[in-house]
Amino acid sequence: MKQIIIFILIFLIVPSLYAQDTLSIKVDSLSVGSDSLLIQKSDSSITDTTAADSISNISVVKVDTLTPLYQEPLSVNSTFILRDEILKTDYRYTENLFKLFPLSFLNDHGLLGYPDELYLYGVSNYGTSYFKDGIFDNNRLNWFMDLNSVQAENIDSVEIVPSPRAFLYGPYNRAAAVNFISKDEISIIPYTRVKYYQG
Questions:
Q1: DSSP secondary structure string, 97-129?
Q2: Can you tell me the distance from the alpha carbon of 44 to that of 63, in angstroms, rounded to the nearest whole number?
Q3: Domains of the chain
Q4: Closest to 131 measured CA to CA, from 83, 94, 182
Q5: 20 to 30 A Cα–Cα from 142, which one of 22, 41, 55, 91?
C-alpha cells in the first residue's frame, strides 16, 4: 500500500515540476512595450530632469506635455466676439462684452452685485442658454445665469448662436444661445482682474 501511494505522489508531482520549464515562454519582465497608459509617443525625446545637478552646468530642457484643446463652434453662422475686441473694450462686467453685439440690450439695475439682465434678440436671461466650452451652465433651479460669476479674464472669445438655430443647443428649447470659449494656456505668472469701486 505504501508503494502505491509513493508511486501516485511521484506520478503527480514530477511531471508538474518539468512542465514549467518546457511550456513556459521566455519574457523579459524589465522591458515595457506599448501600454494604454503611456501618453507620450515613442519617437519623442524624454529629458531626465533628475540628471541635472545644481553644481554642474547641465541645462535641463522642459518638455511641454499639454496638448492644446480646440473648441469647435456650435453653429457655422455664429457671431464671435474675439479676444482682441474684448481687450479694446472698456468693460466692467462680463455683461458689458455684449455691447459689441448689435442685437443685444443690457438692462442695468444700477446696484452693485445685483445681476443685470442681458437681452439677446429680445430674449431675457431666462430664455437664453449659456455654455462654457460647450457645456450647459444655466442655473437649473430658476434658469437664470448670473454673468457676474463668469470670469472675463479667462474668456478667449464669445460665440453667439443666431436665434433661428439657438433652440437646437442645450437640453431645453431657448431662443438664444451663448458659448463662452475659455483660454487654453498656463501662465507662468498668476494674474487677475480686480473690480474696484469708488464713490
A1: GGGGSTTEEEE----TTSPPEEEETTB-GGGEE
A2: 10
A3: 79-182 (2.170.130.10)
A4: 182
A5: 91
Q: Which three cell numbers stand for residue 68?
A: 492644446
Residue burial 150-180, b: 16+ Cβ < 10 Å; e: rest: bebeebebbbbbebeebeebbeeebbbbbbb
C-alpha 117/C-alpha 128 separation (Å) is 11
Helix, strand, coil share of the chain (percent; to 5): 25, 15, 60
Strand 104-107 and strand 135-136: the pairing is unpaired
Per-residue pLDDT of 32-78, as tens digits, reads 554 444 444 544 455 555 555 555 555 655 655 656 566 677 777 88
